[in-house]
């Protein structure tokens, strides 16, 4: 009898541990997605500002282009995530109806609105970094240096956080994120400068 109770207790503990592991895994996935969204916002907005700055370097133009990139990117991310999660929601609802004969526990299903809001917020958090960095710097060359420094610091931080959440090698992951961000900014700057110099 005692051994039966011990076994039951062990089984309960194991089930609780599995639930905690699953819960942590889900949270880690959400956090990692948020980090990736913030990284997208950072790279695309900084690259856009640098690209526009390659042709017209006044602070108002660069800030306006960065703000437009933030709004457009956040809306795009939110709509894309909403459509994607809603598709998943419909599939899971249909599956649950087939399995349960009509009873659905909707609280267990993903929320398209929450996913859209989280995606837009994550993108905006990343995009605000170069905007804040450039906002109070009038001198063009100094402004470019400040944006580059802020972007570098943020990329390293996002790369480190993404590696920790994804249980990947920290140095390699951070280096990939950093080099990728620099490359995106350099290509955008170079191509825009080229097009701008030919009067297009």
UniProtKB/TrEMBL annotation:
<keyword id="KW-0472">Membrane</keyword>
<dbReference type="Pfam" id="PF01988">
    <property type="entry name" value="VIT1"/>
</dbReference>
<feature type="transmembrane region" description="Helical">
    <location>
        <begin position="115"/>
        <end position="137"/>
    </location>
</feature>
<keyword id="KW-1133">Transmembrane helix</keyword>
<keyword id="KW-0410">Iron transport</keyword>
<protein>
    <recommendedName>
        <fullName>Vacuolar iron transporter</fullName>
    </recommendedName>
</protein>
<dbReference type="GO" id="GO:0030026">
    <property type="term" value="P:intracellular manganese ion homeostasis"/>
</dbReference>
<dbReference type="GO" id="GO:0005381">
    <property type="term" value="F:iron ion transmembrane transporter activity"/>
</dbReference>
<feature type="transmembrane region" description="Helical">
    <location>
        <begin position="67"/>
        <end position="89"/>
    </location>
</feature>
<keyword id="KW-0406">Ion transport</keyword>
<comment type="similarity">
    <text>Belongs to the CCC1 family.</text>
</comment>
<feature type="transmembrane region" description="Helical">
    <location>
        <begin position="144"/>
        <end position="165"/>
    </location>
</feature>
<dbReference type="GO" id="GO:0140315">
    <property type="term" value="F:iron ion sequestering activity"/>
</dbReference>
<comment type="function">
    <text>Vacuolar Fe(2+) uptake transporter.</text>
</comment>
<dbReference type="GO" id="GO:0005384">
    <property type="term" value="F:manganese ion transmembrane transporter activity"/>
</dbReference>
<keyword id="KW-0813">Transport</keyword>
<keyword id="KW-0408">Iron</keyword>
<keyword id="KW-0812">Transmembrane</keyword>
<dbReference type="InterPro" id="IPR008217">
    <property type="entry name" value="Ccc1_fam"/>
</dbReference>
<keyword id="KW-0926">Vacuole</keyword>
<feature type="transmembrane region" description="Helical">
    <location>
        <begin position="177"/>
        <end position="196"/>
    </location>
</feature>
<dbReference type="GO" id="GO:0005774">
    <property type="term" value="C:vacuolar membrane"/>
</dbReference>
């Amino acid at each position: 009898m005692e051994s039966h109770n011990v076994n039951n207790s062990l089984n309960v503990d194991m089930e609780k541990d599995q639930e905690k592991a699953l819960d942590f895994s889900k949270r880690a996935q959400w956090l990692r997605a948020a980090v990736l969204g913030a990284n997208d916002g950072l790279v695309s907005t900084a690259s856009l500002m640098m690209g526009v700055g390659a042709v017209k370097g006044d602070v108002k133009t660069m800030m306006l282009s960065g703000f437009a990139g933030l709004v457009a990117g956040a809306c795009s991310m939110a709509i894309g995530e909403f459509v994607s999660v809603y598709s998943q929601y419909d599939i899971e609802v249909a599956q649950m109806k087939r399995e349960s004969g009509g009873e659905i526990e909707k609280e267990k299903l993903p929320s398209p609105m929450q996913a859209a809001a989280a995606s837009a917020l994550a993108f905006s958090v990343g995009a605000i970094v170069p905007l804040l960095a450039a906002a109070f710097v009038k001198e063009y060359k100094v402004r470019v240096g400040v944006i580059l420094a802020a972007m570098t610091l943020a990329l390293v931080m996002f790369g480190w956080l993404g590696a920790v959440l994804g249980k990947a090698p920290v140095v390699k992951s951070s280096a990939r994120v950093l080099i990728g961000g620099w490359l995106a900014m350099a290509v955008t700057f170079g191509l825009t400068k080229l097009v701008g110099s030919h009067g297009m």
